[in-house]
Design brief:
Elements: E1 4-8, H1 12-23, E2 27-31, E3 43-46, E4 49-52, H2 62-65, E5 76-78, E6 81-86, E7 92-96, H3 99-110, H4 114-136, H5 143-146, H6 149-155, H7 167-175, H8 178-185, H9 204-210, E8 215-217, H10 222-234, E9 238-240, E10 247-251, E11 254-260, E12 263-266, E13 269-272, H11 276-283, H12 287-293, E14 301-309, E15 319-322, H13 327-337, E16 346-349, E17 364-372, H14 380-399, E18 407-413, H15 415-422, H16 439-442, E19 454-456, H17 467-485
Parallel strand pairs: 1-2, 1-13, 2-9, 6-15, 13-19
Antiparallel strand pairs: 3-4, 5-8, 6-7, 10-11, 11-12, 14-17, 14-18, 15-16, 16-17
Helix pairs in contact: 1-10, 1-17, 3-4, 4-9, 7-8
Length: about 500
């Protein structure tokens, strides 16, 4: 039993920790209530079109590569154009991967000096260097990880983090032009937060995308899930799909295992890749911890339309953003009124731009997303009709095209669907938002001090949501587990 481990959930973080545990010589079993692995990182096919259902932007690919045997590592192409932006005044801007070229593009299109852009990204790099070793690739829930000489030296540069300014305030001060401010405000949405509330520390995300680079796997985002699953199987990980875990068993101050129906499964190490709200609601009921979690703002969710289009659009890239005219009102709707703005910002992801096999000849597969609030009982069918109409009008106007006539396949996902298919409480994709100065410190840690052998990974716990952070959570848990159990 000392060498047995159980993982609940086969999302990307669950797969990552299963691989890491197996490489440490553990006998690992993964229990997943869905029919397949991947969590939010799934795909579906309809009428000849293939769609990635969830995450679409990929950064820090080395976090995937380090989990895979060399022969399994996929080909990633670094994007030359990260995102194409469309503004309501008719301005179009290409966010080029080359920082020098991007700065020149901004200067030519928006009139903001190239030096300002490079200065902003240089600041974002410095924030990354200060925060990554503490908040992204480490845990700060143990004093020995926090009180170090290196962290003391970082503390001397604390003012660089701009934690007492909102991201929007900082962007306005640094960049000036409303369109460029809106572009960099958008990075708050990468973890489901509000740029008018979240600390300016989130400027760090711009560094990941513009300076470390954005990538795309050869066969789409789902390929990451497929390869991690193959690697886990290669290492002997035992998967049980369509299997719902009913209870986490604890005896005294140690984890004992899980219960599935009337059957108990024993283990020494247990890792949960379940949304932390769901974990404390059903698997290990704990009203006190639930009450604490419910104090914090939930992240935004999404409404996604998957459209098979019967033509190609040469003016669009892999990633495209069509901005709303009033960004502040959009976030007031999301977080205050719990509604979707009548004029939402629209994200269009077209994987067939990189992999033509994802759509029939002459066609494109559109993943069309708008930010949505968490589910609190709204009339989502009515909202779907309203949003669909608004999106078609907006994109049709900016692209000068009758888009309704181009749609030949369609599917829609709303926050209720997201909660049902991924277990994300309320459909909040990233768990808690970062709409507070101390949000990072409020995230649930990756372990329980009072229960030996119980660990947590995934987007609803430290360090947060998104592929890189989920993979990092597994890396953190492995390190703690090794320290505590003396695994090889």
């Amino acid at each position: 039993m000392n060498n047995t481990g159980i993982v609940i959930g086969a999302g990307i973080a669950g797969l990552a920790i299963a691989i890491r545990m197996a490489r440490r010589g553990m006998c690992v079993s993964v229990y997943e209530q869905a029919a397949r692995s991947g969590g939010k990182l799934k795909e579906f096919r309809q009428d000849g079109f293939r769609f990635d259902m969830g995450p679409s932007l990929f950064t820090l690919p080395h976090l995937v590569d380090e989990l895979l045997d060399e022969d399994l590592r996929p080909f990633y192409r670094q994007l030359e154009v990260v995102t194409r932006y469309f503004f309501e005044d008719g301005t179009q801007l290409k966010a080029l991967a080359d920082v020098e070229e991007f700065a020149i593009e901004v200067e030519q299109k928006l009139g903001v000096s190239a030096d300002k852009v490079k200065g902003y990204l240089s600041h974002a790099e410095e924030v990354f260097e200060l925060t990554a070793p503490i908040f992204i690739f480490n845990t700060f829930h143990r004093w020995k990880d926090v009180i170090t000489l290196a962290n003391f030296k970082r503390l001397l540069r604390f003012s660089k983090l701009k934690v007492f300014s909102s991201l929007h305030q900082f962007n306005k001060q640094m960049l000036g032009d409303d369109r460029l401010v809106q572009l960099f405000d958008r990075y708050a949405t990468y973890n489901g937060s509000n740029p008018y509330q979240t600390p300016a520390t989130l400027s760090v995300i711009a560094h990941l995308e513009h300076e470390l680079g954005a990538y795309f796997p050869k066969r789409g985002m789902h390929q990451i899930n497929q390869l991690l699953f193959m690697q886990a199987k290669r290492l002997g990980v035992d998967f049980h799909f369509n299997t719902k875990v009913d209870e986490v068993l604890v005896e005294g101050k140690k984890v004992r295992g899980i219960r599935i129906g009337d059957e108990e499964k024993w283990c020494k190490q247990l890792v949960s890749d379940v949304d932390i709200h769901q974990f404390y609601r059903s698997l290990l009921p704990d009203r006190k911890r639930l009450k604490k979690l419910e104090k914090f703002d939930r992240s935004s969710s999404a409404m996604i339309f998957y459209w098979g289009m019967n033509k190609r659009f040469p003016d669009l890239s892999l990633h495209n953003i069509f901005f709303s005219k009033n960004y502040k009102d959009e976030f007031d709707n999301l977080f205050e009124r719990k509604l979707i703005s009548p004029d939402p910002t629209v994200y269009v992801f077209i994987s067939s731009k990189e992999n033509p096999d994802d759509a029939p000849s002459g066609c494109e597969n559109w993943f069309v997303m708008v930010n949505a609030p968490e589910n609190v009982g709204q009339d989502w069918e009515q909202m779907r009709r309203q949003v669909r109409k608004a999106v078609l009008i907006k994109l049709g106007r900016l692209l000068k095209e009758n888009l309704e006539a181009c749609i030949v396949a369609e599917k829609c996902l709303n926050p209720v669907d997201i909660e049902q298919t991924t277990g994300s409480f309320g459909g909040s994709i990233y768990g808690a938002s970062s709409n507070h100065l101390l949000s990072a410190f409020y995230r649930h840690p990756n372990f329980r001090k009072d229960i030996e052998g119980l660990y947590f990974v995934g987007g609803s716990v430290h360090p947060g949501g998104g592929i890189p952070l989920c993979l990092s959570s597994a890396k953190i848990v492995e390190r703690i587990m090794v320290e505590k159990t003396k695994l090889r």
